Amino acid sequence: MTTAYTAGRPLDLENFHLTAITYQRVSTEEQAAKGGQREGFSIPAQRQANQRKADELGAAVVEEFVDPGYSGRTLKRPDLQRMFKYIKTHQVTYCIVHKLDRLARDRLVDLEIQRALIEAGVTLVSVTESIDETPSGTLVHGVMSAIAEFYSKNLAAEVTKGLTQKIATGGTPGRAPLGYLNVRKHSEEGREYRTVEVDPERAPLIQWAFAVYAAGDTSVEKILTDLTARGLTTVATPQRPSKPVSKSGFFKLLRNPYYIGRIRYNGAVYDGNHPPIVDTEVWERVQRLLDSRAHADVRFRKHEHPLKGILYCATCKSRLHLDFARNKQGIRYAYYVCSGRTSKRTTCTRKAVPVGIAEDLVQTSYQRIGISEATYTELAKQVDAAFDERMATRSQELAELTANRKRLEAESEKLLAAHFADAIDLDTLKRHQDRIRTGLAEIDRKLENDHEQYTGQRKYLTSAMKLLTYCATMYRQSDDEAKRLANQAFFDKIYIGEDEQPTVELAEPFNALSPDTLSHVGGSSTSTTVEPRRFELLTSALQRQRSTN
Q1: Is Coiled coil found in the keyword set (predicted)?
Q2: Span 249-301, pLDDT tens digits
Q3: Multiple choice CATH, 180-219+252-296, 3.40.50.150, 3.30.300.10, 1.10.10.200, 3.90.1750.20
Q4: Is the distance from CB of 59 to CB of 16 less than 8 angstroms?
Q5: Residue 542's CB: how many other CB atoms inside 10 A?
């Protein structure tokens, strides 16, 4: 008998036949139950497409895995976990998915799934995307995974946009703070709406707490103890029982402008529609007292160093913070120390890192992640091809939207002609025209959103790759503010070990364009000269792009 090995298991070549497993997923319970079916319409469509692909490959589908109503940004999916176990104990040739985003919408999740498939000797196949195990295929897979993650986060951004709009009109986002209650009411027309009312049980206790602290002779700890004795607790929810307010929670309560009728959201403050329960003058005095007492407790001054916030201890994973000391000659020098060691949260013995050494290590990190102009050109071609392929898969949907728009416009003209011919009255015309206007607006929104996402994502990744072509040179030439912006754009964390060697965690999208992914097109950072101001603008723009996605 002829025998080979794959993923550590013997493979019987004489009796070997191609086998496949399929994976289907939709994100929400609503999608999963669409049309009155447990799996909705999407999963059967995925199943049929996956089966056709298996037939094209000449493979028999031996098992299918379905996760209806589960997010692609987590590994905690029942059938995904069952799939991991299955491929460890069964001989499987292919894992077929309709699109890569059905399998994962997060880069780290995608990497974990890829590792499990590779270890089991299973080849991943996408029905709608051309991927394989060649270097170019690996790159396309990486780019498409980054795009899938971008789409997922863009959905979250749309939710945030809705919340911002609600707040701008005075509404309360989410659960109201302690002292208020979220309630449901009905309008005179019988429509249900949600609003906020003063909690008659807790609001008097909140008012008392502000008044006592504003007097200036009672500590936060003493007031919180008295409040607990008076019976102040959080509002119970189906998931969490009522409990006393924590110290950190009480500090947040005292800082919250909601109690004077204002709403703080994403650093901005808006006028709210809810009634205030604390006098503005009392609240402002409380803020001044909190500020003065917090200032008295500060042990170290704040220093805006370009490396601030990105350096971590490789030993205990704690953040490195900037500190200063003077030598015997009175000369002041700066260094980074492990916060885990100084706070004694850990048993770390990591020595301090002089700022000069830390800066050199970061410069070295830029040299390692930089790419050449030739690499950029090759990558740009791959990205263009990936986006063009994605748009091709959406061509049918876009054509249907355009056709529906023409149909509604034609219907509008017919209705108008019918009205002029006295076939329908004005009220009927208005009713149908309102319906048509709503339909046209929705179609226009979808078409515009599709175009913005397509062009925005392409520009986003292209900007990221262009930055990599001269990042090392420009970082060296930039001032501290530009360096700070660049560090925040390129890195999530930089770990410094005892051997004073850096290990980096790149920020998105650079983590999808890592040196391992790019190695087949080669090259290192060039010394392209770009004005420092241009470098700062590019990194600022990229950071803003990331924050809105």
Answers
A1: yes
A2: 999 999 999 999 988 876 677 788 889 999 999 999 898 888 876 644 433 34
A3: 3.90.1750.20
A4: no
A5: 23
